[in-house]
Amino acid sequence: MNKNFDYLGNTFQVQLLNQIVVDKDFSHSIMDVIESSYFDNKYFKIIIQMIKEYHIKYESTPTFDTLEQIVKSEIPQELVAKIVLDTLKQVKDAPFEGTSFVQEKALKFCKQQELQKAMDKSQKIITEGDFESYDKVEGLIREALQVGEFEKGETDVFDNLETVLEEDYRHPIPMGITGIDKLLKGGLAKGEIGVILAPTGVGKTTVLCKIANTAFNMGYNVLQIFFEDNPKIIQRKHFTMWTGIEPDNLVLHKDVVMGKITEIKETMKNELILKKLASDSMTMNQIKNQVRKIIADGTKIDMILLDYIDCVLPESSAKDEWKAEGSVMRGFEGMCHELNLAGWTATQGNRSSISSEVVTTDQMGGSIKKAQVGHVIITVAKSLQQKEMNLATIAITKSRLGKDGVVFENCKFNNELLEIDTESSVTFLGFEGQQEERKRDRVKELLEKRKERESQQKST
Predict the structure, then answer these.
(1) Is CATH 3.40.50.300 the classification given to domain 178-424?
(2) Where along the chain do the CATH 1.10.860 domains lie?
(3) pTM of the full predicted structure?
């Protein structure tokens, strides 16, 4: 097998470099798999290396003007710089005839190289007898075969007019929480992701179970992934939502529960799949492979719930931890877009969120990049008094789908029965105004009690 582009000639390599700079979609598809060693000319290697380094740093492809500036500022040897600039001009002026052939040939070559690397790694795993790594082998081969597969992201403004002008063009899947569903224009659609933000112990899993149960009851195929809970606990939560019987009392009403569950199982033709994964050992690519396997086995997943995103590892050990957290959320968004899923996940609030009356986006634990990716962010806050009374304050702090900055104060939020109900709402400004009013009322109440006490002391 050929190890570089030498067999395709000098002109091919010039045109290939030109296409990498000029065609951004092609550049995106090949950048991660093309290597400088594939070029046989020293100066071609320098140019492709500059492009790759720029792409890694800025996540975009440099223009020819930018490349010229890089050469002038970073190559101190005058003669070498001159030859690279001359080569760049040759690349810039490359003919456009046959560019489709060049792109196709280059992608096939890179795909062959990646496939060979994947085969070598797979053979090593098999030779060492590590049969538990089957998913890893499958993932290696699949990724190699997907080299160059990308969506252009271009849409003609006149495309699909009938679909675009449908009243329900998004086809959202409701959460099952009426007030919020209304503000999200029906819920979350496929390709969109939502984030539940709350301090520890407030009820992130409760919200995700509520969403999963609602979607299943409406006939959707749902995959609920969790890292920290026992599968039996999640099962019992769903049984509670179907029967209205508290988890601890399910065993006391076993016949009733079994009857209801059997009825649902026989009636519903869709699936609610619960999947426990090891915490802090799974990457988003590995999770994507698990989802693909379920789809390949015949179940088309409509919604995925990830409880929770903080348990997923970045693909590589990045030096910048915050950037790595953002890349995990980007990976979740990419998976939902690629596999056409509605995606919900949860994330922990930071220390300040624990005592907040309303949790805000800036109280997200870790990188704020996680917030930048989500289409919707819903927060949950609970004071000690609210916990005792099965209440919570829920807020929509971000929404690309409808109105945000909305607070539902003292909503019904029963963790045990998994009941969540939003009846009334105010804006953040309204909530702050109500806070001030409540403070004034409290001060007035305390002053009146003080006067009453003083009056009693005088009479005594």
Answers:
(1) yes
(2) 5-145
(3) 0.62
